[in-house]
Amino acid sequence: MDDPELQAIRQRRMQELMAQHGMGSQQNAEQQKAQEDAKREAEEHRQLMLSQILSSQARERLARIALVKPDKARGVEDVLLRASQMGQISEKVSEERLISLLEQINNQTSKQTKVTIQRRRSVLEDDD
């Protein structure tokens, strides 16, 4: 049912795709490795800056928070790094100051839950 000419075209196309993918994977692997190295360096730089900003107790508390809620810890780290870059932090952040910052962030991002109850009407109920 397959035309031999069509089959030959499919095979050539498949070989072309495999060749492109083979060469592309080498380039992609190098690019991927470079991106991973850049991410690792950025993370090391971030941790170094945080160690300069935070006291040891505050770092421990932030690490415990990161175990439970990594996105919240990352947000707090971002706030601290931004404040440090803007010159708002002149001394190391203590655990108490970190706790107050966490409370402020919790108050700003508190989610209010709302429950609505919808009752289903039975077919046999009368609206009268």
From TrEMBL:
Residues 23-32 have a biased composition (Polar residues). It holds the Pfam family dsDNA_bind. It comes from Elaeis guineensis var. tenera. Transmembrane segments: none annotated. This is DNA-binding protein DDB_G0278111. Residues 1-45 are annotated as: Disordered. Residues 33-45 have a biased composition (Basic and acidic residues). Belongs to the PDCD5 family. GO terms for molecular function: DNA binding. Keywords: DNA-binding. One of its GO terms (cellular component) is nucleus.
